[in-house]
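Example record for the data management plan.
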Amino acid sequence: MKSRTSLRITALLAAATASMAMAQANPASQQPNAQSQQPNRQSQPITQPPAQPAGQGAAPAPAPNAAMTNAGSADSRPDVTSQAVSESGRKQAQSPAMPFVQEPIATATKAQGTDAQLGDAIVKALDADPSLKDSKITVQPDDGKVTLTGATLTRAQKQRAGEIAMAQAGPGKVVNVILDDES
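Corresponding structural encoding:
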C-alpha cells in the first residue's frame, strides 16, 4: 500500500508530464512572441481545456452571450426593461387582471351576545363613513363599553370615529385611544 505522500508525488508527476506533453504538441506556446516575429503566420484557434467530471469542483461554462454575475456564473434572470425585451425579439407577457379589494377600516375583536352585536354595528358604521379612509381601527366591546384602538391620519378622523362609536354605544361608554399622525 502506498503512503499519502507517494500518492501525491505520483499525481504531481503525472500532471507535470501531461503539461510537458501539451507544450511539445503546441510549439507556439513555447515562443511568447511567435506572432510578432512571423507576421504572415496564421494564428491557431484557442481550444477549451477538457471538462472535468462532475463532482470535481468544476463549474459549468456559461453560455457565450450570457451576462455574468459577481459570482462568475451566468445570469439567468429575464430582461426587465421594455427596451431589452423588444431588442431580444420576445413579447412581453400580459399581466393578469387583479381585482381591487377595498380593505375594511374597522374590525371587531371576538365577543359574544350583545357585545358582539354592538361591535358589529360600530364596525359597519365606521366602514360606511368615507371620511375615515386609510384608517385602521379595532373595536373592543366589553360589558356594554367600547374601546377604540388603532391609527388614523388626522385628529379629525380620530374624533369622527369616536362620534360614530358613541352614536351606537351611547354617551360615556366609549374609550377612544386611537393614535393619529398629527400627535
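Summary line stored alongside the record: The chain has a mean pLDDT of 74.
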